[in-house]
C-alpha cells in the first residue's frame, strides 16, 4: 500500500452501479495522475472485476466473508476478490462487522494472497486490537458520524489522535487512516494534520455531481 492514500468506497450506492462505477473509477484515476497522489477505489462486488480490468489505480474489495473458494453459496471468498483483480481488501466496516475470530482468519488469508489490507474500527481501543492483526492500515471510523457530513477530523478529532498514538506506539508498521463524515478537501487536510496517513470516504465522492472535480478537491491535500 502506497501512502498517503485516499480510498473511495462505492458501497451499494445507485450512483455507482453498473457502468457508473467505471465512470467514477476513471475520474479517480484521472485525478490521481494529475495530482501524483495515491487513490484507490472500492466498487461493489458486482462491478469489482470490470473496474479492476479497466483502471490502473488500486481497486479494493469492500469485504469478504470466507477465506477460500468452495461450497459457500452467496458468500465471497478472499481468493475470489483476488482472482477478480482486486489489489486490496477492506474488512470490518461498521456496515459489515465481523466477529474477531472470523476477522483474524480473513486478515491472515488476505495477507497470504498478497492483498493490501485495511481493517476498520470504531474507536482507539478497537483500532489497537485491529492493528494487532498486522494489516497495512487501520481505518478509525466512529459509526455515529458515517454518512452525516460531520467529519471525524472536525467533530471527533480526539478519536483520531488517540488512535494514531496507540497504534504508532505498539505497531509502528501499521498506518492509521480515518473516515466518517468526510465531505471536503478541508476535512481531508484536517485528518492528515492529526497524524493519519489517509482517508476512507464514500458519499462525498460517489454522490457528487461532478465526480472528477470532487475527487480532485478531496485528493489535493495528499499532494500538499
From TrEMBL:
**Catalysed conversion reaction:** D-glyceraldehyde 3-phosphate = dihydroxyacetone phosphate
Q: Offer one Pfam family short name for this entry.
A: TIM
HAMAP family reported for this sequence: TIM_A
The UniProt keywords, alphabetically, are: Cytoplasm, Gluconeogenesis, Glycolysis, Isomerase
**What biological-process terms (Gene Ontology) are attached?**
gluconeogenesis; glycolytic process
Extract one GO molecular function annotation from the record.
triose-phosphate isomerase activity
Family, as annotated? Belongs to the triosephosphate isomerase family.
Q: Where is the active site?
A: 93, 141
Q: What is its main location?
A: cytoplasm
Keyword Isomerase recorded = yes
Q: Which residues cross the membrane?
A: none
User: Pathway it acts in?
Assistant: Carbohydrate degradation; glycolysis; D-glyceraldehyde 3-phosphate from glycerone phosphate: step 1/1; Carbohydrate biosynthesis; gluconeogenesis
The residues that the entry says bind substrate are 9-11, 146, 181, 202-203
**Entry-linked NCBIfam families:** PRK04302.1, tim
Q: Which organism is it from?
A: Pyrobaculum neutrophilum (strain DSM 2338 / JCM 9278 / NBRC 100436 / V24Sta) (Thermoproteus neutrophilus)
Q: Where in the cell is it found?
A: Cytoplasm
Please give an example of a GO cellular component term from this record.
Answer: cytoplasm
User: What exactly does this protein do?
Assistant: Involved in the gluconeogenesis. Catalyzes stereospecifically the conversion of dihydroxyacetone phosphate (DHAP) to D-glyceraldehyde-3-phosphate (G3P).
Q: Which InterPro entries match?
A: Aldolase_TIM, TIM_sf, Triosephosphate_isomerase, Triosephosphate_isomerase_arc, Triosephosphate_isomerase_AS
Q: What is this protein called?
A: Triosephosphate isomerase
- Does Isomerase show up as a keyword for this record? yes
Task: Supply the EC number(s).
Answer: 5.3.1.1
Q: How does it assemble?
A: Homotetramer; dimer of dimers.
Amino acid at each position: 500500500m502506497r501512502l498517503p492514500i485516499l480510498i473511495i468506497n462505492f458501497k451499494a450506492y445507485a450512483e455507482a452501479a453498473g457502468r457508473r462505477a467505471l465512470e467514477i473509477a476513471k475520474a479517480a484515476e484521472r485525478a490521481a495522475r494529475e495530482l501524483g497522489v495515491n487513490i484507490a477505489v472500492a466498487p461493489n462486488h458486482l462491478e469489482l472485476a470490470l473496474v479492476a480490468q479497466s483502471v490502473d489505480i488500486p481497486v479494493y474489495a469492500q469485504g469478504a466473508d470466507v477465506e477460500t473458494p468452495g461450497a459457500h453459496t452467496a458468500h465471497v471468498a478472499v481468493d475470489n476478490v483476488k482472482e477478480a483483480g482486486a489489489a486490496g481488501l477492506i474488512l470490518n466496516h461498521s456496515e459489515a462487522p465481523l466477529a474477531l475470530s472470523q476477522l483474524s482468519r480473513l486478515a491472515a488469508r488476505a495477507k497470504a494472497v498478497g492483498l493490501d489490507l485495511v481493517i476498520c474500527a470504531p474507536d482507539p481501543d478497537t483500532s489497537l486490537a485491529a492493528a494487532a492483526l498486522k494489516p497495512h492500515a487501520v481505518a478509525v471510523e466512529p459509526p455515529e458520524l458515517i454518512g452525516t457530513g460531520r467529519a471525524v477530523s472536525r467533530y471527533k478529532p480526539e478519536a483520531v489522535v488517540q488512535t494514531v498514538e496507540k497504534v504508532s506506539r505498539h505497531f509502528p508498521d501499521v498506518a492509521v487512516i480515518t473516515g466518517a463524515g468526510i465531505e471536503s478537501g478541508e476535512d481531508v487536510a484536517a485528518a492528515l494534520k492529526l497524524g493519519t496517513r489517509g482517508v476512507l470516504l464514500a458519499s462525498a465522492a460517489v454522490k457528487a455531481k461532478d465526480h472528477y472535480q470532487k475527487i480532485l478537491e478531496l485528493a489535493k491535500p495528499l499532494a500538499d
